[in-house]
Design brief:
Length: 164
Amino acid sequence: MLRLTWAGPLLPARVLSACAAMLLALLVGLSLAQAADAPLEALEIATRKGVVVLEVEVARTEQQRETGLMYRKELPERQGMLFDFGKSEPVYMWMKNTYIPLDMLFVREDGTIARIEEMTTPFSTRTISSGEPVKVVVEIAGGAAKRLGIAPGDRLSTGLFSGK
């Protein structure tokens, strides 16, 4: 005679936990794969010492802006992500699920850098304010702004800004 024994209420919870973990890993993997496939666009910044050229992924959709550089374990010095908000407004960023320190360049409607938040703290949920209405935020590797000579008042050159 076949005898069935019930493992109790923990088995379904364990199975559900395992399924949820696999689904989360799949979703994170897909978003990392999509990010890795994102085309890089050239972004020029006119600094006091000359032009700095960066290669950036452009986050245009809400999903891309929400994910940003989360889960990345490295970022080359001259690469980054440009967050296009479409219009000037106060912006608040954070470092949740972000493994590496970043420099955040807050950029006005006219393309000038309003301020730079340097060497942000990985995994922090502290909000980082633009301090004034901005249209774009550019995230680059932590410390790169100083090393490349990028400062407030410098101007980005791209078709995203008025007069360009």
